[in-house]
Amino acid sequence: MVTKKRTMTRRLITFVIICSLMWCLSPHLAAAVITGDKDNRPARAITVAVQYSGMLVPKGDTVRVDLVVNNTGRADETVLLDLPQPPKGWNISFKGANYAVTSVFVPGGKSETLALTAEPDKDTGAGEYTCLIKGRTKDGALTSDTSLTIKVTDQAITSRDITITTSYPELSGPTTTNFEFSLEVSNKSGQDRIFNLSATGPEKWEFSFKPAYEAKQISSLRIKAGSSQAVAVEVKPDKQAKLGTFPVNVEVNSGQSKAEAQVRVIITGTYEIKAGTPSGLLSLSAQPGKPSNLSIYVKNTGSAVQKGVSFVSFKPENWKVEFKPEKIDAIPPNDMKQVEVNITPGDEALVGDYSVAVTAQGEKASSDVELRVTVKASTIWGWVGLLLILVVVLGLALVFRYAGRR
Amino acid sequence: MDTSKIVVEATGLTKVYGSKTAVDNISFAVDRGEIFGFLGPNGAGKTTTVLMMLGLTEPSAGRVEVMGLDPRFASIKVKQMVGYLPENVGFYGDLTGRQNLLYVARLNGLTDKVSHDRIDQALDAVGLKDEGDKRAAAYSRGMRQRLGIAELLIREPDIVFLDEPTLGLDPDGINRMISLIQSLSLERNMTVLLSSHQLHQVQRICHRVGIMIKGKLVAVGTIDELAKEKLGVEQDTFTLEEIYMKYFKEA
Amino acid sequence: MRGMWVIYRKELADHFSSNRFVILFALITMVSLITTFMVGTSLKKELEGIARPSLVFMMLFTSTGDLFSLAQFIAFFGPLIGLVLGFDAINRERINGTLSKLAAQPIYRDAIINGKFMAGVVTIKIMLLSIVLLISGLGLFTLGVTPGPEEVGRVLIYLVISIFYISFWLGVAILFSIFFRNIATSALAAIALWIFFSFFVTFGASLAANALVPIDQNQGADAERLFAHAQVQKAVSLLSPMKLYSDATSTILDPMRKTTRSLILIGPMERVSMDRFNRPLPLGQSILVVFPYIVFLILITLICFAISYLAFMRQEIRSG
Ligand SMILES: Nc1ncnc2c1ncn2[C@@H]1O[C@H](COP(=O)(O)OP(=O)(O)OP(=O)(O)O)[C@@H](O)[C@H]1O
Ligand SMILES: [Mg+2]
Q1: ipTM reported for the complex, 2 dp
Q2: By residue range, what is the domain housing residue B7?
Q3: pTM of the full predicted structure?
């Protein structure tokens, strides 16, 4: 836009300079040039006209239409534009090169196109509005009138103007999933439009719109006339949602026109399990090379059956961690299964605390428990040692007894 | 206590050190109140015999009884009745004579009060009254020997074994020691067994003597008996030395 | 019993009035004080700004400061206390001519050796206890840390182990004093044994390890081999009571030490697993870890004493 404006200005300036040079420095040449052309146009003449003098618009729509100022004479003209009787309820302005303008310079034999914008007030109702546009030269010698009739209709534009299509109207998953439907919104009306997006569905569910392949959330989007754009609707179900099919209505509207589409979310249940110990205590003690037992439970906290729960552990090398049963075929929702964990520290394990993590791994969910295994020294050697000392002390006592009495 | 006359009796007493027989099958008896002298050359086995009588050395064969008790099995009782003055008796040099005596008194279970009295008396008796508070390291040999006797006086045993009590003493010291030993027997009714080389002094005080040569007890009896047997004549003037040399040559 | 008691009291009095004891005690006290003071001041610097330093109290004994830690000092020179207290226990009596006199008193013969051993042990106890109390006091003074019950327990056990350790050397010295009639010989033999155990066993251990599990210096060795090497070295060096003692005490004094081994094989997962909760060991566990060492120390002490006892009981009493 900026470049365009600049080129236009530059062109204008160049033109003016050339003209002035011709006019001032070599009038003969200029006269010769001008006269040399066999021109039978009048010396001065202008016309002002709107492209579509009658328009049918829905209520609330802004009207944009081209205003053409034509200089059919040989002389250059500066045309002032005027609105002698502006229609009620409308804001009318002219724009040239993106600026609101009140006059336009038109060289002889050329024409300029301005944009006329008629913005209705909020309460501008249906009806016929006529707008008279008056153009006159700076000296007021020439005038030209034109009028624009805007017919505001009450009814919305037919739904054929907007369409929503979706290729996958049905998605299924547990409540923990974010369902993402992709929609194609087409603007079939003749104008660029801003479309508001909204979705309704079950209570406590969350909906958001995103442009395709982008992360930001939007609530409206602009679509050029005749084109279409992909929009994604993300549906976050309530975590407590029951199993079943839930319709979600997606609505796209722009002024009076709107289009609806229905997508369906099929909640297949949540997949969530939780592993823990019945007492809440996550520590146990063990001896090097000796198995130690702990029961853990695996609870299905989701709403769907969790299948094929197996167990894996993070443990030091040389340690053994065994599960009984090794695998649980299925845990119904809200059910709890007990698993015996057998932890055997390595023979060379040092005394002190070790961390052993146990993961219950279902098909759709998993849960970790970290256990603190305190390896304790075997007291057997302590007893053996004490016994040894006792034996030696006894031996000493015997020595005292038999060798000492002399 | 034991009413019998015999207080020490050895029968077939033998001690073998490796291949050496230090004491060879000796038998003798000592009566109550006697002063019995063991005579013999160096290495004859006198000390060994005394140690066996005390239970400080195990006999290889034979037995010895002190007041009817075997020192091997009733060593405490025997040691309570027997006082022993070893040859070259030693004392703790850091302690005074008095402290040395006190230590022995305590080992004998005497209360300190009793022992203080007895120590004073004993030091008086052996003539060390003024030296009692000197460190024992500063004692002369004669003083040590007398301190040893004082120790015996404190313990008041029934029998005393004196191993070479006169060894290394000057003539005056020998005389004092001899009279001390005599007083043990006469004033305190102790039975005295002593070993000595000082034949002349032994002759003066001993009631009976035993002559040991190379582990064998070659003769036991009063000096008169031995003189009769060996010299074969009723001599008025004989010395133990003569008898002893005779036995010594025979062996 | 009475005899033993009397002998014990005399020996104790002898120890405390003897010059060598006074010199030894002064020396050890001085070294302890200097060590503690140095450790205390360096610790104080390190601890500045730390709100509630735990385990600091134990560092008084284990921190090496500029030269050596107190525990190391005792491990090294503690045996000298035992040796000095016992190397002439029996042979001096024999040379003095007091032994046969003593044995002739109405006491059991073992009262002599029991009384002497007991007096030595009690002297050691008093010595160590006063050193430890002194150090604790100094620690309280310079650092202002108060030991908790756990630390007090650790120090007490350290004390017990130290007493047994030094008593072992006392037993060795008494044994030598029985075997060698010459005082100088027994002193020399005892010192030779001390030097052997303190210096040469360590040396011999690395020799044995190099011979059995040689490690090429240039190309290095895998973990297993290094481990085997270390194990051989450790096994041989444990023949030395000093090693036994210093391993036991360093584990007792340092709650963060979880093994008496110097080299351990730890896999990466084990490392992670261990580092997760890096708590100090409770006292009971520390004790159990070093219990075999403690038992062994106690056993060699008892056995050494038993040998001395039997040797003394079977020996001729006669002087000269
Ligand atoms: N422990 C021993 N081992 C081997 N032989 C020994 C032992 N003790 C003593 N003997 C030997 O036994 C013999 C007797 O020794 P003992 O001391 O009884 O003699 P003694 O009569 O007291 O001599 P002395 O007059 O020199 O004191 C000596 O030949 C001595 O060499
Ligand atoms: Mg002799």
Answers
A1: 0.88
A2: 3-89+159-250
A3: 0.73
